[in-house]
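User: Assemble these into one structure.

Assistant: Restating your components, then the assembled model:
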Amino acid sequence: MVVSEGTHDFHIHKGMGLVKDVFSKESIMKLKGNIGIGHNRYSTSAKSEQVNCQPFVVYSMHGALAVAHNGELVNKGALRKQVLGRGVGLSTQSDSELITQALCLIPPDGEVNGPDWPARIRHLMQLAPLSFSLCIMLKDRIYAVRDPYGNRPLCLGKIMATNTDEINDGSGDMDRNEEGWVVSSESCSFLPIMKYFREVLPGEIVEMTKYGVKSIDVVPPPIGKSLAFCIFEYVYFARPNSIFEGQEVYSVRVRCGMQLATEHPVQADMVGSVPESGNAAAFGYSKQSGIPLGELLSKNTYVGRTFIQPSNRLRQINVALKFGPILHNVKGKRIILIDDSIVRGNTVGPIIRLLRRAGAKEVHIRVASPPLKYPCFMGINIPTREELIANKLKDTKEFAQNVDADSIEYLSVEGLKTAVQKEINPDSKTGHCTACLTGEYPGGIPDELTW
Amino acid sequence: MVVSEGTHDFHIHKGMGLVKDVFSKESIMKLKGNIGIGHNRYSTSAKSEQVNCQPFVVYSMHGALAVAHNGELVNKGALRKQVLGRGVGLSTQSDSELITQALCLIPPDGEVNGPDWPARIRHLMQLAPLSFSLCIMLKDRIYAVRDPYGNRPLCLGKIMATNTDEINDGSGDMDRNEEGWVVSSESCSFLPIMKYFREVLPGEIVEMTKYGVKSIDVVPPPIGKSLAFCIFEYVYFARPNSIFEGQEVYSVRVRCGMQLATEHPVQADMVGSVPESGNAAAFGYSKQSGIPLGELLSKNTYVGRTFIQPSNRLRQINVALKFGPILHNVKGKRIILIDDSIVRGNTVGPIIRLLRRAGAKEVHIRVASPPLKYPCFMGINIPTREELIANKLKDTKEFAQNVDADSIEYLSVEGLKTAVQKEINPDSKTGHCTACLTGEYPGGIPDELTW
Amino acid sequence: MVVSEGTHDFHIHKGMGLVKDVFSKESIMKLKGNIGIGHNRYSTSAKSEQVNCQPFVVYSMHGALAVAHNGELVNKGALRKQVLGRGVGLSTQSDSELITQALCLIPPDGEVNGPDWPARIRHLMQLAPLSFSLCIMLKDRIYAVRDPYGNRPLCLGKIMATNTDEINDGSGDMDRNEEGWVVSSESCSFLPIMKYFREVLPGEIVEMTKYGVKSIDVVPPPIGKSLAFCIFEYVYFARPNSIFEGQEVYSVRVRCGMQLATEHPVQADMVGSVPESGNAAAFGYSKQSGIPLGELLSKNTYVGRTFIQPSNRLRQINVALKFGPILHNVKGKRIILIDDSIVRGNTVGPIIRLLRRAGAKEVHIRVASPPLKYPCFMGINIPTREELIANKLKDTKEFAQNVDADSIEYLSVEGLKTAVQKEINPDSKTGHCTACLTGEYPGGIPDELTW
Amino acid sequence: MVVSEGTHDFHIHKGMGLVKDVFSKESIMKLKGNIGIGHNRYSTSAKSEQVNCQPFVVYSMHGALAVAHNGELVNKGALRKQVLGRGVGLSTQSDSELITQALCLIPPDGEVNGPDWPARIRHLMQLAPLSFSLCIMLKDRIYAVRDPYGNRPLCLGKIMATNTDEINDGSGDMDRNEEGWVVSSESCSFLPIMKYFREVLPGEIVEMTKYGVKSIDVVPPPIGKSLAFCIFEYVYFARPNSIFEGQEVYSVRVRCGMQLATEHPVQADMVGSVPESGNAAAFGYSKQSGIPLGELLSKNTYVGRTFIQPSNRLRQINVALKFGPILHNVKGKRIILIDDSIVRGNTVGPIIRLLRRAGAKEVHIRVASPPLKYPCFMGINIPTREELIANKLKDTKEFAQNVDADSIEYLSVEGLKTAVQKEINPDSKTGHCTACLTGEYPGGIPDELTW
């Protein structure tokens, strides 16, 4: 976190690990100020090291500057060359430092005068239009910015005053009296003391000061290009109670499950999910199919997330340790198991084996998203093509045989789009990036990284 | 953990914190041996300090001895006086040290000769019949023991040989070829490489050596007393896929939910649970009532368990941070929220408020166990009577008003017993401790602690 | 440290590592009380583990008891058997636990009644007369005890009141107004706010309460045995400004150096020491011989003590890193290098080589104590006989050749005794243990350890 | 440390704390390469934070660059403005980052072409001639550079091949067979496996590659300015066995002590030092005066250096804890106590009080350097003028009265210069910075820091 009291002497506290471990009461007390930005990094392109922790802070000729970045620059190689070519040394390989130094550099003559930061941000949008959501803090303001494609999410919330009854009751512990504004990648983080206000629009620059929030500009995507909000936020990344494009993520996932039931029905006694990622889709599948919904696996929360585990081998043991089959709903039953997505496919086999050993008569796998086939260069950490199960196997029949499933079926790309876009106002401009499913990249094929 | 290679030179590794933090690869590699016992302490009576970590190890006149203990001695005061009176200094206040030293002491003449450990264990059962499940390790054997009331659980499992097909597939990482035996408080811990075998019986002493397991004795409860297995293991403590008395805990909880629907029906659009503790009961309630089952709250797993939090105030904020309402299933709906139990009642209010702010039309609370009213002296950490919500309020109507619920209802004691005992073979002797619900203590009123 | 507020609920804080790392401001603030004892353990017989940290605390039938122990029980094997034979389990191999449990046990009929702790201590002195200095704390008193041989040191100091002028000036930070008493192994620890009072006598039991200090008893050594204060405290262990038997350690070491100059003179230009252990003896050698005293080696304090280093190889590199030769006093000169003692002899060679490379014309080694040849069973950590350089080489000539010295000479045993005893009042009973030099053990040959 | 295997992918390991704590065996093993630079920072101007740890590494348009810096830029404010004015953001306030970015920037047209690093270094010398010793590492070379005034030290050493006899013996643990070169602030760091070669000259740029070392250029100080090597290195900072300008620091300090005895003689029984800083000067004073040299204070090495302690109050207690008076040399004696310098004067009073309480008849303080009166802007951490004792008191008489000394006298500035320059070849250009003593700054009065 970086916090300002209105001067260029920012207070900074950063560290590696979970938020609760990095921030002690003592370190929080030192972060005095009226505005601040924070960042919780899930390392993708640059290494997981202290030096890459965000926000990135520099002192420029126009004062202190802190930048927090969600996303990944598709053309980082070209931008890096430009910045280095101006005689700047870069101390890390992170996009955040690159963006920060690019914002500091004197723009070509005539374009930007002095500390005109919105002009500098517009200039950055030309140099690197994809993908980022940014929080740029100066001593007395924050610019909240989404890239012109709207690839990464960003939304505004309002800090509610304490004399509002519902808040006094809700939190029980609020004693600051001012209103304020907040910006976040996901609206779920606003609970319980803030309220969702609206999304930052694709290409929009919102200025936040003590006088409130102000929309400075909305930059359209490059000519001939469409908006491309990451569809995988709906499928996998976002928390179910977050809101994008006016709709709750959970609702979208329920519709994915319903669509899946329509596309791939099967006779069974019980529908359940791989907890908790498939819960919403399982609810939708049960609703559409009329097959009862029930817990099939009990999750042991004391084991970490499989996405992060280092080796395949360990992953397989861990899966088995992580889930305990519920005999009541499994034994002697034909079951449909819903998951939100299948990436490497390492966990399906062990889970099916657990269910069969617990007495399941049939196990049908239904996946509430299409097969993942292509890499993402916009900030989502997808394994190499060779590691993706969808690129390894001929078809779902072979897949089912390999993992001893009675059947495996995926939601179609069209089905997913329908589920996502059905409830969006057709007048609103919208568009979704499905590159990881279709290979159609919104900004074209990215250049190679160099330095 | 304490491990033996067959000599009196036990290898010991203990520490404070989560298992994954205490045991590194390095420390595990040093724990060489053929037999071993471990303990994961949830501090109840004695303080949470390094010195109270189990297993407790001593060197006695008959060799090294390690003891791991689940439960709490009801008459610890009297036993403590006896042990101190023999001239032994006790370095902690833990029951485990007390039990260990009591086992070491020379029994009164004529009763026990030399290293006859089963006789010493029987003697201990007379001195302190309630409550404990024990693992007592000597250099070449382990005694697995339940107290004569059968208050705390204990069960045997079998380590499966790797040439069994299903295991090779299931774990993928097993390369030791021997069979073996394991003993645990809960059968859920046997997955994925061990198999549930049977319960250790109330009062039973099971000897585990390299030659296998052998039942040494089964000591009945004191004359005039009945078996008293803790009913709260079914309600709250145990993992849903554990097995007690021949039945899966999840099944019992489903029956509690069904019984609850019968006792306290209500018109509603959606049944859901406080995740994840109320899941099974909500499933039962939905099944019995026909009202659809759905997720109402999304749980943020990065916040700790409320039972452990230090202050009431913090607890209230944390609850609100921990759960995000799912608009899809809440907005404009009449909802029934199921929880497994209500202890202090601190979390109900904030949760209802979250649901109302998310647009719930009605919120009915149904609790799948009777009100908790009395302290436990047998190892369950229940707050003082003043802190228990059931002792603070006149009735459920007042409770409902206080927390802005449309209604609150509990399962009856009889209903709970029915749900628990319905599927148990009526021929098997059985009996359950309901002291925390009814004030009827199986071993009478405990003496006071002294030292 | 263990501290008492006058009740049996002692406050305890213990840990591994340096005092400054184990005790934070926070942990010190929790140690409230009027009396307390502490211990800084240099691990000798029992392993360096948390569980062996002293003081050892137990709750006995007569209340809480804390014991801190300096020394090592020669007959620990026999005492251990006795304690185990009474049915006590011992959780460590430390002498301190053994002593504590032995004090708790009910003494044979007729000898001790109830909580008569001095009688229990006298009984312990019979069971194990060698060697210990003990601080035994009860809720309202401390017993300071030396073994009947007087093998380990112990002395009393007085905490000076703050209204004394010299203290107010001296410390500048003293704001408690009471006087008090303190007991320590070495008087040097009394500075700057306490004053040396007197030694605890061999075999003496001193009781310290809020009413002051009181000598309870002085137990003589077993019949036919003499006092045996460890002579190696003078030679090596004690800080130079500590006082034993009425004389400053530094003075004794100066006399050792003078005696050494008399016994083994040599023509040279400069006398210096291996800093800082040989400083006092070098001063004495220079004084006696008239050869100028000067620094030969500059010590780098950022490298640890060689006694503790794990491998021989590392030790040799470390020695070279630790000392830098001072050209001004070494180049072109004949030098005499004084050390207080030579144990393994690993460091002499590398040091001589450093001096020769720095241009020394001659290097003569003079050691201010006799060769170390025998193990100590009374608390001094001396390597095995095979590791002692004095047991490896034929004579000092061979030694000198091996390490490229022009000569090496030791102080004689008689010379050491003379230097130590010269200034002691001949009327006072005294006697010194020289077992490590002569093999003459004051309590006979110790039994073997068993358990 | 930063290490290169000949590519731009430098291996970096940095941390806060002592070298032995920051570098584990594991982290050292990862630092593979043929060349490397390290830095041990004693924080002066920039804060003691992870982010300010050196070497500072950036990736420039001409490849990776690592910079380690000893000293402080006098005109950092002006240079900072220049760098910021070029559009570079600076992430810290450290001179090292400033120097690194200044080296990266494209120099004004015509002056430097592309990756001509020596030209860039010469350009830096013009922008900021005072003060720095630098190690600048590229993928395959290191530039060792001293500023044109020669204010900070830097010297070259040679890594000796292992087949040389003396090395095989000296280290006992050398198994790499190549020769190599090393550069360091102090020659004492070369022991035991490297050999002092020569100083890097003031203004010299030395290039170190696998082909050896090569002098690229020697830049003279600005016109009208003289060389200005920090005289305080001789007085206080350097280790006694380091070599500057062809002479051992210890020898210079001995001459300071002799000069002091000549300037300020006094009748006394014993000369001693505040260990260990005054040792050499006490030796010189004793030699010149004929008064015997002896230890007066025994130092407890387990207490930190007073220069670093946070509060005055704590410092006074700590001083008393740190030194124990040696009665043998103090009691009943007239003593002269030598210290190398007096900065804040906090420790003199407590030390004198210790000596008087130990029975000293007279205590005369002699300081082997002139009074410290002015701040340093070239890298030496001197307290503010108000904190310097020499600026607080009228004269040494008042000083002596305040601290209860019988007399206090300082070495004169001329005396110090004589002692330093006496043995330097009069033909060699030389010159010393005495700014902290005289207020005469070699580069004029520094500008103020701004950003």
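Chain C has 15 helices and 22 strands.
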